[in-house]
Amino acid sequence: MTFISGLEDNVAVNFDSVTVLYNTSNDIACSVGTVLPLGSQRSLHGSDTYTVSSGVITLPSGYNYLLRAGVGAYGTTVTGDLISYRFYDTGASAYIGRRGWLAWQESPKLTSGDEYAIALVDASSSAQTVDLRITSKVGTITLDATATTYQYYYYAGHSRVEVWKWS
Question: How far apart (Å, rounded) are the C-alpha atoms in residues 119 and 138?
Fold first, then answer.
């Protein structure tokens, strides 16, 4: 196996920082319009921190951002449950980027799976505020479920948003 050293100097976009914002609330009833609360954060590269209030993330001006989100959830029926989620620009009152989704299915290779929600945000001239919202739901879904009975199905970890910042 070969490893490339100094990769950060050779990529097309040299990211200034990567921070993960994650949900520390548990057992959240899921409905269309639910905003993930995102109560904690961890820097993976760089040392940036972000202001998060009631799930709304403030992205400081002067930078561009790539946002990527995954949701941890429990569905009661295992087959047929589905949620989709998407970033929402609270300043423009509009959804942005590509929606993500999570579906439960006994045979996921046939008709099911999951995807991250992804958005590019240009905050080069002014700060931007965004959140992650549930946009559709089929079935009874619990976000970030922690009850013992849920553990068999709950392997994804807490819901989280990755914030990749570059100049």
Answer: 24
Q: What length is written for the chain?
A: 167
How crowded is residue 116: how many other Cβ atoms within 10 Å of its Cβ? 18
Give the separation between CA 51 and CA 137, rounded to whole angstroms.
28
CB atoms within 10 A of CB 165: 22
Instruction: Note the pTM of the prediction, 2 decimals.
Output: 0.84
3-state SS assignment for residue 108:
helix
How many Cα atoms are found within 13 Å in the side-chain-facing hemisphere of 98? 10
Query: Whole-angstrom Cα distance, residue 163 to residue 128?
Result: 13
Nearest to 67 by CA among 117, 134, 23: 117
Distance CA 17, CA 166 (A): 7
Task: Bin 149: left if φ > 0, else alpha if -120 < ψ < 50, else beta.
Answer: alpha
Please give the backbone phi and psi of residue 29, each rounded to the nearest 5 degrees, phi first.
Answer: -65, 130
d(CA 123, CA 62): 6
Residue type, 110: L
- Give residue 157's pLDDT band: very low, low, confident or very high (50, 70, 90): low
CA atoms within 13 A on the CB side of 58: 10
Average pLDDT of the residues in 139-163: 71
